[in-house]
Amino acid sequence: MDFVDTSATPVVRDGLVNDIMSQLYGMEVVNFTEMESYIDRNYLVNVKKTHRNPYIKEVKPHGYVLKIFNGEESKDEDYFDACYFVVDYLREYNIPVPERIQRIDGKFQNRERLYNDTDDSDSEKNCHMIILLTFVPGVILSSVPLVPSLLYNVGKLLGRMSKLLQNFSHPFFQNRPQVIWNLEKLPILTKYLEFIEIENDRMLVEEVIETFKKEILPNISKYQKGHTHGDYSHMNIIVRKKHEEVESLHCNEKLCSVNINDTAGKIPSSPYGVSGIIDFGHTRYSYIVHDVAISIAYISLESKIIDSLDVGGHILAGYFSEIKLNSEELDALPVLICGRLAKSLTIGRYVYQQDTTNLYPLRTSAQGWPLIRKIWKTPKEVLLKRWNEIISSYGEN
After folding, report:
1. 43, 17 Cβ separation under 8 angstroms
2. Phi and psi for 55 in degrees, rounded to 5?
3. Which residue numbers delimit the Aminoglycoside phosphotransferase domain (predicted)?
């Protein structure tokens, strides 16, 4: 999908969430809240303790996430099988991830037609993949203070996943088509430049694209490949206070709450620890440095306690405690970070102009333009020096 098809967003009629939960999952809704999303529809659903689902032993007290996927991605069932195969694999190694819930017919997922008063019930665009997941208790990373030790833990968990996924394989990802969000596809942003109204912003994105083509693409064969999360960001990392009870999510509770939250001894500790990773829809076989760049780009947007230019150093320190990047990958990081920011800002502007009622695509804008300019104007050697000094301060890398 080389473009963002906003018309593929599901149209959800009144009462549909209740009907899905009752008819497909055998559970009765107490209440539900719609969650933010780009072009999917996601709902946090709380249900009654009694149910009619033979595959559910006990109703989760924290609720469930009902995901109704956009019509474009819903066409490819192999895509969903592969993405949740990754999730199941990581859960076996105590990575705190959501769990799919079986329907009353035993299926974990299925395409369903959504009906409303205006659409033909036989229309293909009404056919959407529906999946129910356990809700990972906690709050998103961006809602808590981003102190160095928490950033270290975020990087450490990403490094642990990168290392684990070196031994993972699934045939779908070997041939998965590239989509616009893949960093390799950065040059395709030229199709969307017209949607950036401010000339200086548009010129900056053009400069990032040209630098990417000159400095990154010729060296891309030197970067390590592996399976990646694809969107390891402040919106997909869940945290909880360490003293709160952490649901095991089918993994050893002690491992989830202690090993993942180990920090360097001299770094001030955060009261929060990582309790979950969500949204594996961008998973693919790609370059592991892309996951690092995406993480640094988005988390830097939310940094209010430490300088945003230092976020990368703390994340890299945690990441390097599990797996290392080579010199070529480190050298590429500043351009890759700006590339991801440019992509988010540009596509976000396009999606918003297609549907001005959806403000979610503009989340990056307020902090995004100042951040990309700040990183872009900082000499690469200066930025890398700052990061290396931070990494060295942990005394273990």
Report:
1. yes
2. -95, 0
3. 62-242
